[in-house]
## 1
Amino acid sequence: MGQVIQMTSNNRLFGILVPIISVLLGLLVGALIMLVSGHNPIEGYTALWNGAFYDAFTIGETIRRITPLILTGLAIAFAFRTGLFNIGAEGQVIVGWLAAVWVGIAIEAPMIIHLPLAIIAGALAGGIWGFIPGILKAKLGVHEVIVTIMMNYIALFVSNEIVRSVLTEHKTTTEKIASSASLGSEWLQSITFYSRLHYGILIALFAAAVMWFVINRTTVGYELKAVGFNRHASKYAGMNVSKNIVLSMVISGVFAGLAGVMEGLGTYGTVSVISGFTNLGFDGIAVALLGANNPLGVVLAAILFGVLKEGAGEMPSAGVPTELVDIIIAIIIFFVASSYIIRWTLTRFKKEGK
Amino acid sequence: MKKLGLLVVLILSLGLFLAACGGGDNKEKGNNNNSGDTAKNEDSNDFKVGMVTDLGGVDDKSFNQSAWEGLKVFGEQNGLTEGEGYTYEQSNAKEDYIPNLTRLVRNKYDLIYGIGFELKEDLTTIAEQNSDLHFAIVDDVIELPNVVSITFKEHEGSFLVGVAAALKTKTNKLGFVGGIDSPLINKFEAGFIAGAKSVNPNIEVDVQYAESFGDPAKGKLIATNMYNNGIDVIYHASGATGNGVFNQAKDLKQNDADREIWVIGVDRDQHEEGKVGDQNVTLTSMIKRVDVAVENVSTMSMKNEFPGGEKLEFGIEEDGIGFATTNQEAMTEEIINTVNEWKDKILKGEVKVPTTREELKTFEEGL
């Protein structure tokens, strides 16, 4: 009995230690790369820090950047919990963005109706984009990775075409959404020197709380997790596996759709013809991985990535190319993914310690 | 119990949010001191000019690189140091535009360029907030008193390379690879087709858009299909995507040195990009002198003659648009002479080059 407790507490300890060590190793390797390429790592990291926390403006921008990352991280983590790999968060972000802005432009209503409507439209669009791969997986066994990748391209090109032909007359950006549908706030902008900080961060944190609640405190969440652990055992236990797969993809899509809503109603207030993926969905995979698919972990990982990415813009002032931050992130992910190595090393040290 | 847990999380998250805001206030004070320092330093330096790239980056071998080259020439001529007197901010994603522009504003740059129409909205926002600073947008128009809009008559240059392509092709099939299907790139498309059909109305032009200015893989794929379908000259107006077009042409040329296939470059003279051993697949390039425009506007601004609120349009007449003759083997004297004849016709106003698909239709009917 005592042994069992020790093992679980060890696992929990490892669960926290592995990401932390990975982050430290990533930063360390980044410093080494800077040294080797003839830059001063202290200056480099100071610039990175200043880029993210220099003044109210950069902090506002950093929080803004964190917001959609939390949501895409949650989207991917949620699907992971049911054993599904939702690479389609990217496409779900795009359709969520489009739908929210569309409602924001096309409808006139008081804010109390308009804003929630636009948010729900975006979430719903993301949900539908998640439903399609979900139902294909559940009914026909088509692998969700393949379908979601394809759905990304469909979302990108359909969205571009709608912007061009439906929302505008062959222009590349729509008009701004009505202020009654905007998440932006003059107050938040005034305290952050016109940064694009908006109320979306509250929605993102609320979504994290919702995910925690659903996964840990409801029967639905228990079933979703069970399907993730062992599909066949869940079926044997009388759960409806198909229903749970579809449900998981839809909820995952809703989270990703909300990330698009953040960009549409918060950051830009418009939707543009985009020349490539936003990368929010793909970065979400890294966030979910680093956050160990746990809502709190996802929030923390999103903060880390947001800070790294926002701070990266300042690094050229120390002569360090911004690409270095992408390398550091890649190394962090590498160590998280190969957590087995860290785990093995830690156990080895522990044994020798005894 | 369930609800209690939820409440705790909510309170914690709110706390996190407030903590972040609180931190912001402290930093804000620090910033005020800092900006005071930079203001003092500014007195000793005279003029600072910076640019924000679009997604291509300053090494895109095309549009952004040309702008940066112009800025470098300006900086070196006026004894400014890179990084202090003149600088660039690279944008890796659309969301970087605002932070990059703000960084230049905060560092007290007197003149700030937004390179590319993608920056229009964000540059407008920043220019409205900083009415005391000067801004310039390339390839689009912003109507504000402190912004100068720099545009080019790309359709004229595209017309000329269209003429060259029509004279060079043996299959009478040409290809056009565009970046994003947008009013700007449509100008290239319309001009090119008009030029080609002016020489030979029976020429077919296959038009494809990559939906990206930064996707060489897509460019290569489109080029593969075009060359397989018998197209022998491709004109690309697609930034870094076009590198894939060059890549495919060079691959084909490497395997079969006798095959006659050509690429027409854009924005800069892309002769370097077309080299395969002793041969070169770059027929010519539609040259858009972003560097000249950037240099001119910077000089005007430094002399306190900033043309705020104006629309500067650079065409053949202003030496802002031209075509490359670097590849002397491919661009024979005969071709160059014919192209120059058309150039004169445009200058004299005998030919009005179409800028949109609708205008192109009318133009074709008039042939």
Note: Residues 2-44 of chain B form the longest helix (43 residues).
## 2
Amino acid sequence: MSTTDGTGSQQMLASALLLAFVGSGGVVLVGFFFPSFVGQALGGQTWLVLALVFFGSGLGYLAALPYERIRPDVSSESSLLRIRRGSVRAVLSDIVSVHDPVTLGLPILVFTLYFGFQFTFPGTTAAVVDGLTNSVLRGLGPVLLGTVLLSVGYCAVLLFSAWGDVKLGGEDVEPTYTYPTYFALVFTAGIAAGIVFWGPAEALFHYRQPPPYFDVAAGSEAAIGAALVYALFHWGISAWSAYAVVGIPIAYFVFERGAPLRVSAILTPFLGVDGLDSSWSRLVDTLAVFATIGGVATSIALVSQQFLAGVEYQWGVPPGGLGPVLFVGGLAAVYVLSAVSGLHRGIRRIAGLTVVLFGLFALLLLVVGPRSFIAERAPTALGAYVVNFVPMSLYATGSWVTEWTVWNWAWWFSWAPFAGMFLAALSRGRRLRTVAFTSVVATSAATGVWFLVFGGTSLSIQHSGRADVLAAIAERGGSEAVAGFPLLSALPLGDLLLFLFLALIVVFMVTSADTSTLIAAILASRRGVAPSRGSIAIWGAFQAAVALAVLLVGGAETLQALAVLTGAPFAILALLSLSGLSLALYREERGQDHTSIVRQAFDRLPEVQTHHDVEPPDRKQ
Amino acid sequence: MIVVDSRDEAGERPFEEVFYPTDRVPFVEWREFSGAKPTVALTAAVTVLAFVTGLSNLSQAQPVVAGPLAGVLPMAETFVRFAGVLFAFPLGIVTFGLRRRKRLAWLAATALLPGLALLPLTTGRTTEIPLLLLILVTFPLLVWNRERFEQTLDLSSFQIASLTSILGVGLYGTVGSYGLRGQFIGLDGWGDAIYYVIVTIATVGYGDITPTTAEAKLFSLSVILFGTGAFTVAIGALIGPAIESRMAAAFGTMTASELSLLEDHVVVLGYGDVTESFLERVGDETDLVVVTPDADAASRLTDQGIEVLTDDATDESALEDARVDVASGVAVAGDDDAENVLAVLAARNVNPDVRIVAVANEETHVGKLDAVGADEVIDLRAIGGQLLGASVLNGSADGTARDDLLGVSVTGDRSDGSDDAARNAEGT
């Protein structure tokens, strides 16, 4: 009975979402085609709401669709029903009993305390956190820079050495996720809407205020090159390595040593699998939950404000006091549905859609944008990136580096627990080489192309004077949120690009938030208990509550700074885990018959070698 | 069989339930998105979008002509103004034909879509980019699925004759009035001739073109008589069979053309005590046809929306009508075991490879049904007895024994049932 009830309500939800999608889509379509008839009849805010309902119900429908390969799961359906039917008290005790009290309680306590302080002494709290952040980032700046460079080096070692041949879960395990799925999930989980906002903005900021490493004048021809190189640098292999060096040790210890899937698995070489119940590992997991919820929730709040600010700038639609709250609520509904529906349903489908939209947008931009400018600048920037990579990574003088590079690395490291753990969880049946390639090379290739195309376009438009994007940013108090709007309006097919731009912001935010919800639910569950749908939903709701509190109480930037601060301990943990992983790989995998990719490549070329052996006289000449 | 593994170790590695719910998760289910049904749906979407785009173009005082093809295409403005709507109407008919897997509809669609793609390329408006993108997706899918649209039009000789006569009258009228143009007021060229014939046959007769001589008047009269006659007959010939098939469907008999669309369906031979609950279990998952000579049962099933062929289930020709040759399975479920044996034999004759599951009402008939070619025989009494026993002995675990038996016996006749059977077996 429970199965039929569960699928029945799911089908009802799916058809209701489809109805909302088609209905709002129809109205949006009519407005799109007949702006003169309908456009003025409905107000700007109505259009905004309709467009968002269109996005949201479409994504929700994707999540609510059943997965065709497996029947609805009987056990989870019945647990969902039980929660629905039980009293509030029974539900609460159920939920508390499957959670780890420390990892559940501490983050909630910290967030409550923070909001209490923020509410009563907003000025003092902000000053204290800012001071703390500044001193930590300044003090630990060189450590972070070194860690990131080391991470890149370690990924290169895994990529090319015999260690890369280790297959997670044993030689006979086949990967569950096909490669495109794997890439899409890893890529979209690790990146939130930042890539969409910063795509046009990052290079422009460096163009206005060139990085001190390149000694060039602001706004000059040379500043264009410097700006592109630094945009590539901040979003390239260094950044993605942060996820890999947290994720790969977790994956190795989970699938090869049987450690439980949590961030604290990186402590396995020091504590042993049985020692992972210790308070140290709980501390690590709690910190990971805090970093995840803090990082993603503040991103949700900031993205909502930026989204609405951008819409206000472009179309003059004021968000009103309730706007951001409603936006966060809608976003939360979509990502909770996606997380609850499961990895193979909502999360996979929305990730796939995100990658497709991302590619489509980049392609469209390349078609209508300044192609010759990009074709001319991109190879130069790539070359300069390769040549200057090591010196840029070690360049540590000046406050500019602290504000941009160090802050950026700390930010990526603060997302590393959840992105890394997600990467680890998906990697069963993959070789370490493939994991490193996907999480560092493939993903940074995607972001690299994005920043070359989008950043190149914005620099070209700004430099040639077709649109003054920097003035628009300055007018809005230096917010990167508005950069995309004047830029895209200056291009052919601007309306379509803007529509896609807004859709991309929403999907990128959803794909990170649903994954982080899932990971937080796993981290906070007791060992040996899979998070139920109810507990995933509660973590999603908690994340949304933090985002809403940030919006209502204020201090989003301050809380984000606090979350970013957790990047520093994770960078140090990553260093520890790398040494532990090296030790484990050295001990365990030495006797095994692993071959490096270089050796494999050489083995494939026997003819070339014999050719040289047989005919040496040719070469002498 | 990862599903089974993760359940065994549920206590230790719970995350596998979350991260490895099945043993393969592809990026996109290509089969879901690339088959004939999505093609038809996309064509329908193109039709709607073409209509809306066309209306949008029509509503403008001055059509925008700024696309890359604007200079190349003759009469670009007229084309932009009318093309969307004028392409949408035939595309609507084509979509209907594609739904019935007609070859002619496929050919028409491959001709219409590139023509429609000219519209966004001529106007170059932002609002028409979605149409272009949609066509760019639909067209390759249409070509990819060309083999799925193989149904011939199957016009009766009467329909062919009436269509030909309309064409004949049209030609006769056009060529004739063009030849007699000197004896008409206001008829100067081919365009006028076509206009005159259509206005005349449709009995509108604006009167702006009028015959002046006796010869021209007689000619016009003949066009009116033949034209309206052919038109009326053609409508009867084309619409009549559709109404007929509706009526026939209402009486519980599928028409030959409806049956010919079936594929990978399950044929149920005979109507017995188990049929209702069987249909309840399988009904939503696959297409079904029930073959039974029992008219009462047939009308009852038709009311429930189940396809019924009112015919003798032991007759090979009836089974051929029910497309047993392309069915994915046959369930023999009559109340009379002798009929069931004959039905198994008949089904085996029509399709030697199809999976046949038969119900044995008497235990002594299990072997006989097996011997005549049933792949699996379900002994109703034995199952009932075992259930009774299991239920008495193991009251707390109620349902599991039943699920187990049901799982094995019902899912056994679906080609992809092995997974479910394994899950069920594992569940006990």
Note: Residues 214-250 of chain B form the longest helix (37 residues).
